[in-house]
Amino acid sequence: xxxxxxxxxxxxxxxxxxxxxxxxxxxxxxxxxxxxxxxxxxxxxxxxxxxxxxxxxxxxxxxxxxxxxxxxxxxxxxxxxxxxxxxxxxxxxxxxxxxxxxxxxxxxxxxxxxxxxxxxxxxxxxxxxxxxxxxxxxxxxxxxxxxxxxxxxxxxxxxxxxxxxxxxxxxxxxxxxxxxxxxxxxxxxxxxxxxxxxxxxxxxxxxxxxxxxxxxxxxxxxxxxxxxxxxxxxxxxxxxxxxxxxxxxxxxxxxxxxxxxxxxxxxxxxxxxxxxxxxxxxxxxxxxxxxxxxxxxxxxxxxxxxxxxxxxxxxxxxxxxxxxxxxxxx
Amino acid sequence: xxxxxxxxxxxxxxxxxxxxxxxxxxxxxxxxxxxxxxxxxxxxxxxxxxxxxxxxxxxxxxxxxxxxxxxxxxxxxxxxxxxxxxxxxxxxxxxxxxxxxxxxxxxxxxxxxxxxxxxxxxxxxxxxxxxxxxxxxxxxxxxxxxxxxxxxxxxxxxxxxxxxxxxxxxxxxxxxxxxxxxxxxxxxxxxxxxxxxxxxxxxxxxxxxxxxxxxxxxxxxxxxxxxxxxxxxxxxxxxxxxxxxxxxxxxxxxxxxxxxxxxxxxxxxxxxxxxxxxxxxxxxxxxxxxxxxxxxxxxxxxxxxxxxxxxxxxxxxxxxxxxxxxxxxxxxxxxxxxxxxxxxxxxxxxxxxxxxxxxxxxxxxxxxxxxxxxxxxxxxxxxxxxxxxxxxxxxxxxxxxxxxxxxxxxxxxxxxxxxxxxxxxxxxxxxxxxxxxxxxxxxxxxxxxxxxxxxxxxxxxxxxxxxxxxxxxxx
Lengths: 330, 475
Ligand code: HEM
What we know:
The complex is a heterodimer of chains A (330) and B (475). Chain A is mostly helical and 330 residues long. Helices cover 70% and strands 0% of the residues of chain A. In chain A, α5 crosses α6 and α5 runs antiparallel to α10. Chain B has 475 residues and is an alpha+beta fold. Chain B is 33% helix and 35% strand. In chain B, the strands form four sheets. In chain B, strands 4, 9, 10, 11, 16 and 17 form a six-stranded antiparallel β-sheet that branches. In chain B, strands 1-19-18-3-2 form a five-stranded antiparallel β-sheet, covered by helices on one side. Chain B has a four-stranded antiparallel β-sheet with strand order 5-6-7-8, with no helix packed on it. Chains A and B meet through α8 and α9 of A and α3, β1, β6, β7 and β10 of B. Bound molecules: protoporphyrin IX containing FE. Protoporphyrin IX containing FE (HEM) sits between chains B (31, 34, 37-38, 93, 96-97, 100, 104-105, 108-109, 174, 177-178, 180-181, 401, 404-405, 408, 437-438) and A (284, 287-288, 290-291). Protoporphyrin IX containing FE sits between chains B (31, 34, 37-38, 93, 96-97, 100, 104-105, 108-109, 174, 177-178, 180-181, 401, 404-405, 408, 437-438) and A (284, 287-288, 290-291).
């Protein structure tokens, strides 16, 4: 095999992993210390990582002539690249850089794990020799990646909600504001976070217990106040899942179309497609629960976590533990 | 008529019935109830993923602990997707969705224009501007219209309200998604009612018929390609191609050349025929004391067997071995037939009595004077076929569902309630409140932007100059 291409592939992989690992560390530091300079360094590292990864996938295709997503190595590589790409879109569009640490860390782990599935050059088995692989797999993988980013937001939501609850239990005497932990929301206007004029109704604010603890100099409370409010985190999580769910639906639909072409039935109750349906049901449940203000918040954050667990089960669990048509051998 | 004139019991029963019906509809329309049904659906689906489906009871008895195997048998968990519970829960989900759509989604999503208590809505703001109420209303209408809001005015009790809607049409997104789901359900039901599917295997040179439509498949040749590939973990044998060359005769009575491979099925009168699997059929020869005796009456496929005379013994052909390693006598990794053999299992009165690997062409002794030889192999091709008239309907449903999801998630219907009050000579106070179909948080940033822009573009109270609102990018 062409040594130039091979070393290009290797080098891009190393650049990708190195950028994710350092980016994860820098953005974790940003998450902890909120120094803008860390964000300024961390985001370009994420951009470098993602470019290197997409270039690496392209290089592998060029090197082998085989579409690189026919095995777990390729698909996990794409998964981490998509997760970082989706994170970057949200980071720039909605100022979501603070979740970069966990996202990049998970991307680095996924990519590192992917290399253990690298068999080297492998042509595709007959079932995978279809143009559908170029449509279906990237869609499904980007759905998984969106859910991974949403999962990171959910974790931060739950951490902040638990901390707010703790401060609330400690007993603040200040009363009367907006998004309480767990998403319960009161109709009282508050605006301090945005420096708006009075008489502007706002709902994204921390609980009074937390803000008063922060005002009293409690370092943890001050750190927590620096995170977006629970209501805002919830909206972010919702928006990201709203990207993932249509992608997953489209992924299932294109998978069904492919299955019809390859195996004769658009739906065979194969473990993989059924596990994807399972995740779809969980996220459809999330969307419905999210329409209820009293369930929006901690509960839906847990559902998002459950959803991602189901995604991991569908993505890795089924491939590794359960054989079916997707581990196609005749 | 009788019920009405009779009075007493009948109307009461009727109203009790109506009340129970309403209770039932309320229950079904309740989102937590619907989501609980989704959770049950998810749980049944998970069981189906974890427990291998469609195997015979012996498989579960050997694969699971006895109590689990018994549970699987008793609850019919081996065939869960076609169980009454699974289909029932899907039916209930559709009922629940329908109840919710008619009692909640439609009324809530398409609300009438009503005045509100502006300050009581979490997203509200007050802006003091110059001008009398009428001119301010006009300017505000222009301001919102220029930004893509649909502006409507209504009078309630002598007070004029301005309502501005964005993406009002997208309120129907949920309806579209729900309808899409129902269409998919209809499409799958059409297959259950009218479609059929099955599988068959044909030896090279033989013929098979699809019973449901009488189509004939003459398999001329089946071929495969398996390549040895050097990987980091050593050499693996990777399947590259499977192809059946056949002549297919459909309703028109003419034989058509067909090349059937994975990912390219053949359509015969609307029924699709797929390359599904392949195998090696074996011509077993049985002799007793050196003379041929009746053995199997056809070439055996993997899993098939035959009785050995009247000995009470039976032989099952278990699997084909492509290459028997000459040095070790064990199966080699190469699945291609180089030095092929077969693994056979002997049974004595239905009890396993030992297995053996025999090379092709080399007889083995079965005892009592019997000898068995695997004389030759013939490749066979396994096909699946399926006729599914519901596919176009499922396709439409999938498209509608996806469209519904995109409309629901990416076009946020929002409504602004605007009330202008004159607070002095040439000064007015504008109260604005916003609602969306997805709560307030999701709109907070945009609401803030709208209000800030309004403050920037509208002349402040106390000034006399009235500037027209510039047209900015829509929110
Ligand atoms: C289990 C039975 C179901 C019930 C009771 C139900 C009911 C509802 C209700 C009441 C809403 C909120 C409407 C509103 O806020 O005005 C809703 C939203 C929605 N439903 Fe369903 N639904 C069910 C199943 C489904 C299924 C299977 C789908 C899949 C396509 C679906 C797709 C949607 C979508 C996309 C939304 C919009 C969510 C959002 O805007 O965030 N529903 N549903």
